[in-house]
Amino acid sequence: MRKKIALFAVSLGMSLILILLNCILENAQLTVYAAEPSVDNIKVDNEYIIPDGFDWCTYYVVVATNSTGADISIRADFTVFDKAGNVLGKSQDYSDAVKKDQQFILYGQFKNAEIAGAASYKYSFRVEKTDNCTYNSVDVNAVNNGECLQVSATNYSEHDIQGVGVRTVFLRNGKAIGFDTVNIADTGYTFHGGSSNSQVVGHNTGRYDTYILTYTSAGNDPLMDF
Q1: For residues 101 and 112, what is the distance between their CA atoms, to the nearest angstrom?
Q2: CA 88 to each of CA 34, 46, 179: distance values in angstroms, whole numbers, following the listed order
Q3: What is the C-alpha to C-alpha distance for residues 75 and 161, in angstroms, rounded to an integer?
Q4: Is the pLDDT of residue 33 over 90?
């Protein structure tokens, strides 16, 4: 009797594992993790492989939190490999300023024609402390207008700063179905003191039920006191 119970428990456990793996594969997210963490105290919250919807490119999106205890600038190097370990593509991304404890998004963008046969993705971070964060000068709001998001930003300081970099992952039933990024500024990459502006994200995403939106804000002059 004990043997039957033990066999049943093992069988049930295997079934649950198979169901879990099937759910992960069906959701098509967290398909491939980075091989190893590259920086202490950068907490990776989620990783998504997201097609652009036009069969032109694929985004590898990392949603992470700055748990270093300090404001930082951060760069990421993304690499795609085939089954044999050959490099198919490389991409870089960066943020000039991520506030302490702030969630942020970095991503690699790859042309589908160049990464056919992709088997794995890997990325690494390079982090430095910075005094150039201007998050306290900026307010960002997003409103769902039925088809996409209207994202507005206001620079409440007297100083010109860099444009506010907004990045958004769109999800439906927990599955990432779209990714978009915009820069909210007045002229080029400059966001004037006292100015408000807005952009629309998610034009081509389709129907979603939730989203992850992060933004970064940095000064034009690292020596300026905000």
Answers
A1: 34
A2: 16, 23, 22
A3: 20
A4: no
